[in-house]
Each structure stands twice: as C-alpha cells, then as structure tokens.
Design a protein that fits this description.
The chain is mostly helical. It contains eleven helices and three strands. The protein has helices spanning 3-23, 28-41, 78-92, 98-109, 116-133, 138-157, 164-184, 191-199, 205-216, 220-251, 270-277, and strands at residues 49-52, 55-59, 66-70. Helix 5 (116-133) packs across helix 8 and helix 7 (164-184) runs antiparallel to helix 8 (191-199).
C-alpha cells in the first residue's frame, strides 16, 4: 500500500478523528498524536496536520489533498475523546481496516449525548459533592442537590439558546438566586458553602487545564486561546453572582453578610470526603 494509493482517504479519516477530539475538549497534543498515529499506520507520512484550538489544516503529498476545518469551541463530551483515542490504538494494532475505522468514527461522531436526566442527576450530585468537599453540612449538601438539579434544567432548556457570555452570566445568576432563596427560607446553614457547591459545576475546568497543558507544550496560540475562553467563563460566573447579590439586597433592603466557609465536622470525616470526591 503506497501513499499515493489512498492518501485522500487516510487523511480524511485522520481529519474526522481530529475533528471529534478537538470539538469535545481534547488538548492539541492529543489531537496531533492521534491523527499522526492513524495516518502513519495506513502508510501516509506524518507532518500533514496543523492543529489550532478551533481549526485543523490538513494537506496531502504532491498537493493532491488539502482541507481546512473550522471547529468552534463547544460542549465537552470526554466519552467521545476516550472512544477515539482507544480506536486510534486499535488501528495501530492492526485491528481495523480503513473502511472499518471510518465507520467507527462516524458512529462515534453521531453518538447522542447523555440523556437529560443523567446530566441533571450529575449536576445535582456534583453540586452536593463539591459542597461537602468544601466543608458544607448535610443541610447545605441537600440544598445544593436540589439547586444543582434545577440549575441544569435551566442550562439545558433556557441558556442553551443564549450566547455564551449571556448564558454564562444567567447560569451563575440563577444558581446564586436559588442559593439565596434557599438560605432565606431556612434550608441550609452556610450560604458561602451553598454558593460554592452550586457554582462549581459551572467552572470551565477542562478549557483551563488544557490551556495550561498547551502552554507547557509551547503551543502558545492554542494555550492562550483556551485560557482566554476559561477566563471569560470565570468572569461570567463572577458577574452572575454579583448581579444576584445586588438584586437580593435591593429587594430585601440589605445584603446577606457572608461569614466565610465553615467546616462541618460530620462531612469533614474521611468517609464523607471520599464519598463526595467520588
């Protein structure tokens, strides 16, 4: 099998793999390594790929193939990253023909996201778990469980139709408003811990970590782009929390004074901390 026989098909398969990885939150080095692994196995020399944080440039030998893809930063589905990464190693182990590999990649790309109820449950347990990790009591965790579920319902059905900035601000605003309402109704002991647990699922951790990793790999363009995206998310959260506090203070003629995080001795035990981290 020579490079000129199937260069176009191989580069298309490698580009599909890179597209899936980049679209779902993989770091630049992983995208490049995976594309090169697939191309090399099928007899095409590496060095045909140039990956940015939101685009892939692919060229073939002798000018026979060229492709540029714009890949916007979207939601993260790490299950697809894992699936493509595993497939690339199976390809390197000679377990798939080129046609089989393309079919598998198409099925991974078209795979639906997790059901809504699983995402809502994940947000609920995540908010409660983070609250426990940061020292919240059982009542605080229970409040965050409900708030986390309601917040993700809002994210799925309301903020998804908004722009990224407006949606991020609204998500944090709704989360904080629910925390304030819960605390004023007596459902929860520490407002600080409740708010921390509620907003933690909104933190753009994957873009931030990937940005740092890209900078460590001397990929400054991609690293700065992803860090900027993460910082924008942090700013949106801060604005949403601030607006909610200002509105609450205006409605009730005074803001609630935050006493700082407290550490509940019950949830601070090793058993509960391990359960919360899990």
């Amino acid at each position: 099998m020579t490079e000129t026989d199937n260069t176009t098909e191989v580069l298309e398969v490698a580009s599909i793999a890179g597209h899936i990885l980049l679209e779902n939150g993989a770091e630049i080095s992983r995208v490049e390594d995976t594309m090169e692994r697939i191309a090399s196995h099928y007899g095409v020399d590496s060095g045909h790929f140039f990956v940015l944080s939101n685009g892939i440039f692919t060229t073939g030998s002798l000018g026979k193939y060229a492709n540029v893809e714009f890949i916007p930063i979207r939601g993260i589905q790490l299950s697809k990253v894992v699936a493509v990464n595993q497939l690339s190693y199976e390809i390197a182990a000679n377990k798939h023909t080129l046609a089989d590999a393309r079919q598998r990649l198409d099925s991974i790309k078209d795979a639906p996201a997790k059901p809504s109820w699983e995402q809502i449950a994940g947000s609920a347990f995540g908010a409660a778990g983070f609250c426990a990790v940061f020292g919240g009591g059982f009542m605080d965790c229970a409040a965050d469980f409900v708030i986390g579920a309601l917040l993700y319902v809002f994210c799925l059905y309301v903020s998804v139709s908004l722009s990224k900035i407006v949606g991020g601000i609204c998500n944090a605003l709704v989360a904080t408003a629910l925390c304030l309402a819960s605390y004023r109704l007596g459902f929860g002991d520490s407002l600080s811990n409740i708010i921390i647990g509620a907003v933690m699922p909104l933190i753009p951790g994957v873009p931030f970590v990937n940005g740092v990793r890209d900078l460590a790999d001397s990929d400054y363009i991609a690293g700065l782009t992803r860090l900027t995206d993460a910082m924008l998310g942090f700013i949106c959260i801060a604005l949403g929390v601030s607006i909610s506090f200002i509105a609450d203070g205006w409605i009730f003629d005074g803001m609630i004074e935050l006493s700082g995080m407290t550490v509940n001795p019950q949830t601070a035990s090793l058993l509960w901390q391990c359960l919360a981290a899990f």
